[in-house]
Amino acid sequence: MTTKPNMHYADLQESYLFRRIAQRIEAYELDHPGTHLYRMGIGDVSLPLCDAVIRALHAAVDDQASTERFHGYMPECGAPFLREAIAAHYRERGVVLETDEVFVSSGASDELGAMLDLFDASSSAMVIEPAYPAYVDANVIAGRPVVHVPAREEEGFLPEPNESARADVLYLCSPNNPTGAVFNKTQLQAWVDFANACGSVILFDAAYEAFIEGDELPHSIFELEGARTCAIEICSLSKTAGFTGTRLGYTVIPRELVRAGMSLRDMWVRNRTTKTNGVSYIIQRGAAAVFTPEGQRQTREHIAVYKRNARVLMDALDEAGVWYCGGRNAPYLWMRCPDGMGSWDLFDRLLHEVQVIGTPGEGFGSCGEGYFRLTAFGTHENTLEALSRIREI
Fold first, then answer.
1. C-alpha dihedral sign at 90, 208, 314, 341
2. Average model confidence (pLDDT) across the chain
């Protein structure tokens, strides 16, 4: 007997977007050794963890050296001290959560994939394109049908719900990756009402909510009426607090979210206690420091640096007369490729002529062709130099 593999892997695109980018960069570096590249493609941060987090991590390491303070296995759904800190953070914004509605994870990307365990294998998934590629790939691997809803420039890449968007699971990301577009409360309420009417569940990716300015735009889907009966919110400290290499996220599943008589919150408890041994005590202590007054102040200072970079990028595109969205409330700018150029053509030209790396829009789905993503996560000095080089061409 021969073991049969998961044949759905054969349905995936040739390679993951960021692997394709890495391969082109590797080829360029082989031909041009020692050349400095200005990386404005992958959304990785450049500033270190803030002081409050570093102190908490060091203290937690010391705890592990003490018999009295040592921690072994942590609760699979998250340490009570961190779950409460996150719930308190939501309460400060007017969203009341029970502590046991908050789940600690090793990061939003991990959670977005694992969350599919909650839904029947026949469940369909809707993605708004351009879309973060993992939304699509995770469902293809699971053999689930994917409904692609196009987003267009004329609607600011924020489509309204309609019958073509009907699916069991609805992926929404705001602020959006890759476009940087942000749903206002009226727009997001329409999706909440649509999900409740259809019996769908929204997977709301709020990884970039910390970049939203002011209170007019929703930071959480649970600011909207009816969201507790149709939504799961997935968040991350990667971009908020520089945890891309440290890895920690959190997910909110309300008690009211019930389908076919089954509580999705209770199902997730069972899933986590079966499939994980929890997140490291050390990392959770570092994460808890993010939600202290000092941690909040310091992380906002770091975010301000990235938003300053975004402002510089926006000013440059405005000066050049290039259409874009994003930037103001997001770390991404989604620009139209100049002169009708293809997105991979622009990628190659920027890499080979001025050593600047961005992300081709085509990699986020067919609706992304003709557009290009730039990130604001570099250092301010590198951002200025990259813009100077882009202006040359």
1. negative
2. 95
Q: For 329-386, how does the pLDDT look when each residue is reduced to its tens digit (9 = 90+)?
A: 999 999 999 999 999 999 999 999 999 999 999 999 999 999 999 999 999 999 999 9
Asked if 230 and 195 touch (Cβ cutoff 8 Å), the reply is yes
Q: What average pLDDT does range 77-98 have in this prediction?
A: 97
Domain covering 51-292, topology: Aspartate Aminotransferase; domain 2 (3.40.640)
Tokens of 370: 């003709």
Question: Distance of alpha carbon 325 from its chain centroid, rounded?
Answer: 17
Residues facing 374 on adjacent strands = 333
- Tokens of residue 118, six digits: 């909650």
The token pair at 252 is 């909110």
- Superfamily (CATH H level) for 9-49+295-392: Aspartate Aminotransferase, domain 1 (3.90.1150.10)
pTM, full prediction: 0.95
Name the packing angle between helices 293-320 and 380-392 (round to 10°): 10
Residue intervals of the chain classified under CATH 3.40.640.10 are 51-292
- Hunting for tokens 């808890």 — which residue is that? 288
Which of 226, 229, 236, 221 is closest to 264 using CA atoms?
229
- Classify residue 70 as exposed, middle or buried by CB count within 10 Å of its CB (0-12, 13-18, 19+): exposed
| 138-160 pLDDT, tens digit each | 999 999 999 999 999 999 999 99
pLDDT tens digits along 96-114: 999 999 999 999 999 999 9
